[in-house]
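Batch manifest, entry 17 of 40.
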Amino acid sequence: MEIVLGIDSGGTNYRVMAADKDGRKLGLYVGPPASHHYLKLNEMKERIEQAIDQCLMSFGGGRREIAGIVCGSTGIDSARDLKIVEGCYRRLRDVNCPVKVMNDAELAHEAVTGGEGVLLISGTGSIAYGRNQKGRKARAGGWPLSIFGDGGSGVWLSKMALRHYGRWLDGAVPEGPLTVHIREELGLISREDLICLALEKGNTPEKLPGLGKLVNQAAREGDRDAKTILCKAAKELLSLVEDVVCSLSMEESEPNFLLGLWGSTLLKSEMMMECFSALVRERFPQAVIRTPQKEAVEAAVGLALRLG
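Output type: C-alpha cells
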C-alpha cells in the first residue's frame, strides 16, 4: 500500500498525518516541536524520525510504503533554513520518495485561503504571508525571538505579562487579577525569582511559560492592564497584515481580498479577535475574513497527494 505523509512542524507541536492514495486518513501523531533553531541537527532529526515511527505504528504502516512527504515548518526564513530542513527529510531512514518542504505560514495559507490572499498566523509565534492575483508572494514577521519578537503572538503575550508582573514587583502598578494569576501559576515572589525565570527559560518558545490564557482570564475578570495587552497584540498583528498588503500592492489592485486567520492565540481569544476585527474593518473594509475549515496537517496531506 502506498501512503503519503503530511507534516505540520510548529513552534509548540509537531503533527504528522498519514493517508492512503485516496486521501483516507490512516494515522496521526502529535509530539514535541522539532525546530533547527532550538535543537541540534541530530536532535531535530531524531525527533522527526520518532514522530514518523509513532504515526506509522498507529496503523501498522512501513517506511518503504511512503510515496510522498510535504512538511510545513516553522523557522524556514531563508534559503539556508530550507536547505537544512529539507536535507533532514531527504535523508530519512528507509524512505525514498518526493519531498516538499515550506514555511508553515505558506502551508497554512494554502489551507485557509486556497493559495490567494493574505494569511495571518498568531500562535506560538506570529507571521503574515500573502500571494496576490498575479502570483507574487510576500511575508512579514516571523523573526526569531532574539531579533524582533513575534509581535501579537503567544510568546509576545507571555513576555508582556511578565513585563507587567515586573512592573508590579517594582511598585509601579497596583495588584490586579493578572498579577495574582501569574504569582499563583509560577510561584514568583521576588525580583530575583523573575530574573531567574527569565535567564533560565526566556530564550526559546518551547521553554517560556505560556501565559496567554492568564492574560485572557484576567481580561474577562475586568483587569484593565490585561485588556490593554490584548488590544496591543491586535495592533501588532494588524501591522503584519499592513506590511504584506503594502508589499503586494493589494489595496490598490484588489478591491476585495481574503484575509485568513490562523493560530489559537488569536482565534481562541474573544477579546483579541474583537479588537483585531474592528481594526481590520477600519483599515481594510474590503478584506473578507476567513477562518480555518481544516488543519494545516490535512492541507499538507492534500499537497503530498499531488506530489509527482
